[in-house]
């Protein structure tokens, strides 16, 4: 299954992660523990815009099946059950939310060999309500090349409300992709170049074009591994937003992340700062 092209959402994901992952301008603290019964417990507290929030999550794994339960401070409960390989090369996911039942959904993923060298991935998801929104995606290719399409069909409207297409080319040194989204209104291209192995140091550039507004946005950034425990990242876009972060591994799987962002076109505005601490045994 690793020979396949992955999901449609994987197209451009490496560039997106380099430019957005771990950047946060809130205060967040999480602690994870593991019980003798094999249950992983995670408690998270966060402060955003002066508002404090928190949640508790539990995860239980049995063979290739996973059960996740999450409860937040507003008494919202989300339960997700993931089944792997009930049928060969498949994965099924069921998510039930309380009290927002309309947000509950089921998902299904199937991977198959279409030829000796080509593989395909099919996903579908639907909300569990009277007028479900159904998502489809199909990706065709190999581990190094992929072409895919995705769409959303709203049964209440009886029409497609989203259709996107994308292509990606990968190697050990680079990852290039292009996605046509927003019903053809947005074209986004990205290129990641890795600076050796492991891929902890890399440079990235992303160019987005919105045809309806004749607007272009260019974002450049990257990451650099100072040592085995410390990584720094930075990004700058054509709108003048400059962001940076430092992430340090205090001990295995326990991370301290410090983020900041300034508007270089409005230096009189206060910069934004964020702090995240994730502790694991």
TrEMBL record:
The keyword Ion transport applies. Gene3D superfamilies: Porin. InterPro entries: Porin_dom_sf (IPR023614), Porin_Euk (IPR001925), Porin_Euk/Tom40 (IPR027246). GO terms for cellular component: mitochondrial outer membrane; pore complex. It is found in: Membrane. Keywords: Ion transport, Membrane, Porin, Transmembrane, Transmembrane beta strand, Transport. Signal peptide: none annotated. The keyword Mitochondrion does not apply. Coiled coil: none annotated. Its main location: membrane. GO terms for molecular function: porin activity; voltage-gated monoatomic anion channel activity. CDD domains: Porin3_VDAC (cd07306). Belongs to the eukaryotic mitochondrial porin (TC 1.B.8.1) family. PANTHER family: MITOCHONDRIAL OUTER MEMBRANE PROTEIN PORIN 5-RELATED, VOLTAGE-DEPENDENT ANION-SELECTIVE CHANNEL. This is Uncharacterized protein. It comes from Coptis chinensis.
């Amino acid at each position: 299954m690793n020979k396949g092209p992955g999901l449609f959402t994987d197209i451009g994901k490496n560039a997106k992660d380099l430019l957005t992952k771990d950047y946060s301008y809130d205060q967040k603290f999480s602690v994870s523990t593991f019980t003798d019964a094999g249950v992983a417990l995670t408690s998270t507290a966060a402060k955003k815009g002066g508002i404090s929030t928190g949640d508790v999550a539990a995860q239980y794994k049995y063979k290739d099946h996973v059960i996740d339960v999450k409860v937040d401070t507003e008494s919202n409960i989300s339960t997700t059950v993931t089944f792997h390989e009930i049928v060969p090369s498949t994965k099924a996911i069921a998510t039930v939310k309380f009290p927002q039942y309309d947000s509950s959904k089921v998902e299904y993923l199937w991977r198959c060999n279409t030829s000796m060298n080509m593989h395909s991935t099919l996903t579908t998801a639907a909300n569990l309500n009277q007028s479900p929104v159904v998502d489809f995606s199909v990706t065709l290719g190999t581990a190094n090349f992929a072409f895919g399409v995705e769409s959303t069909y709203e049964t209440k409207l009886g029409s497609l409300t989203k259709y996107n297409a994308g292509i990606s080319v990968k190697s050990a040194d680079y990852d290039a992709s292009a996605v046509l989204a927003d019903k053809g209104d947005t074209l986004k291209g990205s290129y990641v170049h890795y600076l050796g192995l492991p891929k902890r140091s890399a440079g990235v550039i992303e160019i987005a074009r919105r045809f309806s507004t004749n607007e272009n946005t260019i974002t450049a950034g990257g990451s650099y591994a100072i040592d085995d425990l410390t990584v720094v990242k930075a990004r700058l876009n054509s709108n003048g937003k400059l962001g940076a972060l430092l992430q340090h591994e205090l001990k295995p799987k326990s991370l301290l992340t410090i983020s900041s962002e300034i508007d270089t076109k409005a230096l009189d505005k206060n910069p934004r700062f964020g702090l995240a601490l994730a502790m694991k045994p």
